[in-house]
Design a protein that fits this description.
Elements lengths: L7 E2 L1 H8 L3 H10 L5 E2 L5 E4 H6 L18 H18 L6 H15 L4 H13 L9 H4 L7 H7 L2 H10 L8 H5 L21 H15 L11 H10 L7 H11 L1
Antiparallel strand pairs: 1-3, 2-3
Helix pairs in contact: 1-2, 5-6, 5-11, 5-13, 6-11, 11-12
């Protein structure tokens, strides 16, 4: 009978202990964060001692991009919500939140922002559309042009995003970042019509990353643009839709 230190666990049991999804445990295994062995039947098994080591605050392996150890279980819930949102919106939008988060962080890094600010931009990018949970999914998946009334309802999703995050203590700092990612620097955006520097820098960054990814992703009502064409649209909007300096930094991250 193996001792507690040598006891082997299935990924399912490891996920229960860590309060994460089985997919995350598998990612830990594939990334080398969690040593594993394979049974003759081809199943992964991990040592309980290695799993519990990830629970220690001082253990760097438990840290996730864009967050810290204390936020890991919450982030797993968030990831599930993001997946649900993407399924509600459009089957072609899978991975949108992750791509926006990664592109936004690349811009933040290019700007020389602190690691903490980069992490917050990444997490806000991941969560920017969480408010779509409060929007009629039929509108999010509608083929063809929305009516003016339907569009006004969809335009409320960043407001809902801000409200949802504002009610979660660990995420409250991200509220304005997600609320204002559809603002325009010329003041013609939504939901509040903010102008220029009134828009939080993180929101301006996410707005660029979100627009580019949306244009290069296929939707139910249109085909995806090529990266070249999408970049052309972003450049054309510099100084009116998007912050000109941030667009310049974005171009460098893509090139």
């Amino acid at each position: 009978m193996p001792s507690t230190e040598e006891r082997l666990l299935s990924p399912k049991r490891a996920a229960e202990i860590l309060a994460v999804t089985q997919q995350t445990v598998k990612k830990y295994i594939y990334d080398g964060r969690l040593p594993s062995m394979t049974t003759p039947g081809g199943h992964h098994r991990v040592r309980e001692s290695d799993v519990r080591a990830l629970l220690k605050p001082s253990q760097p392996d438990v840290r996730r991009e864009g967050t810290d150890a204390a936020t890991v279980p919450l982030l797993e819930v968030v990831r599930c919500l993001v997946t649900v949102i993407e399924e509600l919106c459009d089957t072609f939008e899978s991975g949108h939140g992750q791509r926006v988060a990664d592109r936004a962080r690349a811009i933040a890094r290019k700007l020389g922002m602190s690691q903490k600010d980069q992490d917050q931009v990444w997490l806000a990018g991941l969560l920017h559309d969480v408010g779509k949970l409060m929007v009629d999914p039929q509108l999010l998946r509608k083929e063809g042009r929305l009516t003016a009334d339907e569009f006004r309802k969809v335009q409320q999703h960043p407001v809902h995003s801000g409200e949802i995050l504002g009610n979660v203590r660990e995420l409250a700092e991200l509220t304005r970042m997600v609320r204002h990612h559809h603002e325009r620097v010329d003041g013609r955006g939504y939901p509040d019509g903010l102008l220029g520097d009134e828009i939080p820098t993180a929101a301006r960054i996410i707005g660029i990353a979100e627009a580019y990814d949306s244009m290069t992703s296929r939707a139910a009502y249109r085909e995806a643009l090529s990266p070249r064409d999408a970049m052309g649209h972003v450049l054309a909007g510099a100084g009116t839709v998007y912050d000109q300096d941030l667009v310049a930094s974005f171009v460098q991250t893509v090139n």
